[in-house]
Amino acid sequence: MFGTAILLSLITVIATVDYNGPLFLLHRPLITGAMAGLVMGNFTQGLIIGATLELMWLGVTGIGGYTPPDTITGAIVGTAFGIMSGKGATAGVAIAVPIAVITQQLDVLAKTEDIYFLNKAQKDAEVGEINHIGLYHYLSLATIVIFKVVPVFLAVMLGGKYVAALFDKIPNVIMNGLSVAGGILPAIGFAMLLNMMLKKGMWVFLLIGFVCSAFGNMPTVGIAVVGVIVAYFYDMIKSKNEPAAETAEGGEETQDTEQDSDKSDDDEEDYDL
Predict the structure, then answer these.
(1) Residues 117, 100: contact at Cβ < 8 Å?
(2) Element (H or E) spanning 78, and its range?
(3) pTM of the model
(4) Whole-number Å distance between alpha carbons of 45 and 37
(5) Distance (Å, rounded) from C-alpha 84 to C-alpha 139?
């Protein structure tokens, strides 16, 4: 169990650094769930749990000062416990959601602690001491990593051996309810994403996808290909219309300038008279 906890903690480090740095999307639940499943010896189940959590958390993002639920810790712990319990995505989702919300507060605390390094960097910058500013950035990242790694390590070490026994004691009616909830939550994730992305002129593209699925019985890959084709032609038409619009605006500005010039000449003639 110790080796498993170490490997899952290492995945947490990689995902946290990616989220706060290069953003190669290694922090997404689909990836972290798959990696956690590989560590737990069941890659397929890890991929299924990660994909379920990915759909559920599609619209979860940090905007401004808002700190979203900790999807990294939630996905890794949820996947690990889902595989340990033998209940799959049902248990994984049931554990991942509360874990993500609880560790969200730890993320807020870590970023609050990072204000210390921010103040140190500002003071050094004011006096021209720039040698340690980079170090402060790395130390602030290390603080965030610690606040994510410790919960994952402790959860696996202390709770791993109790997970299977705990879920065996849960009545079937509750597990069935959790299974239904696990099927609904991805739809909520899509709704959150559409709420952010959809503009007035974009509903037609959603309708195209619905028609392809409902009446054309197309698989997801086929709908994605149709989406790429539609996006290509949409971008091509839009790029052709933009120069024409700019030319029209330029012509209007030239006409307005000529009218202003003619008016100025008329005013000068009136003045000469």
Answers:
(1) no
(2) helix 71-85
(3) 0.68
(4) 6
(5) 34
Q: What whole-number distance in Å separates Cα of residue 33 and Cα of residue 79?
A: 6
Can you state the angle between helices 89-113 and 172-197, rounded to 10 degrees?
50
Q: Which amino acid does the sequence have at 121?
A: A
Residue with structure tokens 């602690």? 113
- The tens digit of pLDDT for each residue in 108-157 reads 888 888 888 888 888 888 888 888 888 888 999 999 999 999 989 988 88
> Phi-psi bin for 69: left (phi > 0), alpha (psi -120 to 50), beta?
beta
Do the Cβ atoms of 23 and 31 come closer than 8 Å?
A: no
Please name which of 62, 55, 77 lies closest in space to residue 9, comparing C-alpha atoms: 77
**CB count in 10 Å sphere of residue 231:** 11
Six-digit token pair at 234?
Answer: 């949409």
CA distance 145 to 151: 11
pLDDT in tens, 5-34: 899 999 999 999 999 888 898 999 999 999
